[in-house]
Each structure stands twice: as C-alpha cells, then as structure tokens.
Give the backbone structure.
Amino acid sequence: MRSTMIVYKSPTCGCCEKWVDHMEQVGFTIKVEDRQDLSVVKSQHNISSEIQSCHTAVIDGYFFEGHVAADDVKRFLTEKPADAAGLSVPGMPVGSPGMEMDGRHDPYQVMLVTKQGEIRIYSQH
C-alpha cells in the first residue's frame, strides 16, 4: 500500500488543484494542506529558489516540487535513487500536468535534487 502524498499549496491556486487531480487519477491518495505562506515548507525540504514552483508535495520522505508528471513520480518512487531528496519542475511550464492550455506544450525538464543540493536532469518532456 502506498503512503498518502501531502500537497502544500495556496488555497487559490487552480493549476495546483489540476495537478492534484492528475495525481489522484493515477491512484495517488492525496491530502491537501492549503497554506498562505509556502516558504516554510520549501525551507524544511531545502528546496532552493532556483527550482521552486507553486506547490510542494511530500511522500515517503521525498519532495516533488511543482508540476512533476505522475509517471516521473512513480518511476522515482520505484527507483528510490540513494542520494535523492526529490524532483522538481521549476516554474510553471505550459503543457505540464495542471498547466494544460489549448494543446500547447512547451518543452521542459524534470530535475532530480540530491540530498547535497546538487541538481541534474531526471527526464525531459
């Protein structure tokens, strides 16, 4: 049985709600915690400003920052890279899960963040 994913987001963010729906549609159990100030959560997980996005999800001790696709999250949780702290999609790229707009799709990268704060490409979309 998979753990519950906690998603920290602004109470007014529609794209975050769409991302939560994306994750629930593929079987994740989600608990949403609306916060006016997400900086504390990002600080607790050492998510640097260069890789931040609009919401932070946490499951099994890992973070998933922003609009990371469910397939990437599933793969990551299966692989559990030894030195990894989590994955991030910096910013809010059009076409990423929750950011769909009129069929547009801007290319973007999913970044793996190590426990030491190093950042490397995990996947590309």
Notes: The chain has a mean pLDDT of 94. The radius of gyration is 13 Å. The CA atoms of residues 10 and 35 lie 5 Å apart.
